[in-house]
Amino acid sequence: MNLSKAGPDVRKTWATLLEKIATPVLANLSSGTLRQNMPVECRVAMREDRQNYTYLEATARLLAGLAPWLELGAGPDEESSTRVRLAELARRAIVSGLDPASPDRFNFSAGQQPIVDAAFLAHAMLRAPTALWADLPHDTRGQVIVAFISLRDRKPHFNNWLLFSAMTEALLAKVGAAWDPMRVDYALLQHEQWYLGNGMYGDGPHFHADYYNSYVIQPMLIDTLRALHEAGQGQHWPGVLDTVLMRACRYAEIQERTINVDGSFAPIGRSLAYRCGAFQHLAQMALQQALPATISPAQARGALDAVVRRTTEAPDTFDENGWLTIGLCGHQPSIGEGYISTGSTYLCAAALLPLGLPASDPFWTSAPVPFTQQKVWAGVDVPADHD
């Protein structure tokens, strides 16, 4: 049975990887050269369309995964200088993206896609309320508020997209801006109707065999509700967060059990080019110290490390200039749907959310233990699984 590496070694590997993923995006955007230098890989027929969105996609999805690590701030650890540098780059990047005069200004005004990636940007700001919100210039915070409010002139699709609208409204509520409770209420009520049992929601009225419960649904349900509770608005949805977290524990168990011994997982459903981002939910439950009793922090660490390495260490995952390519295991452009472009792939950073836990946390200090499939396929007698 091959156990994962020791926690400090995993942390060092993840921090190096996240710096590698983040640097091209943040360095270029903060310098006003993102549109100039970032490649736009996508289906040929979709190039003109995806160029309208891919830059905000890359930034918002990257920051949604990077945010908890940046929120740790300066400290005595050896990562501190890297973290502080990336946090400053991230703030300069956001300033550039919101500046109307910037060559890299974000598109919030045209098309439906900005509804999606504004939500990932809002999620990043909720995950790093100091590093990616309070420490932004006052004018930039105001520009974010205006941009998020402007999205109300477009209607989200009748599926997980309802949570994108809810997420931007939750950020507005959290920072004391005018927000629309109805957009939150509608998303929460519909997802309650779409709950199917055993910890999983349908993506709209129908079930889809894919990873959208992890890409979007469960992380955004939890953090929308938590943000509203923190904003003093939780009384509007009494008991809902507790119910959502109970279901989230079961889905975390399912996620951990789907990671194969070698870190691979079933290539089922849409958006596989998000790579290890398929396990954002398990990563967030570890970050929030909300893992079910059946999964120890070390077990989650080993499972996540296996899937992170399996999906990011394959040849050609990055191009010659350090940009992510489209694929699940290496460069596999045919795996990308029409809405997938270079920027989309940066959701893989969400698998690294536990970097937001300090190095002293049991997630990092506990001795390695096997995760479920390692135990099962080594012949260990494991308890039966049930919901």
Short key terms for the protein model shown above:
single chain, 387 residues, mainly alpha, two-stranded antiparallel ribbon, 16 helices, 52% helix
Please describe what this structure looks like.
By secondary structure, the protein is mostly helical. Helices cover 52% and strands 1% of the residues. It has a two-stranded antiparallel sheet. It is globular and about 60 Å long.
What order do the helices and strands come in, and which of them pair?
Layout: H1 7-31, H2 34-37, H3 47-50, H4 54-71, H5 80-98, H6 113-127, H7 130-134, H8 138-150, H9 161-174, H10 181-193, E1 195-197, E2 200-201, H11 212-230, H12 240-257, H13 280-287, H14 297-312, H15 362-365, H16 372-376
Antiparallel strand pairs: 1-2
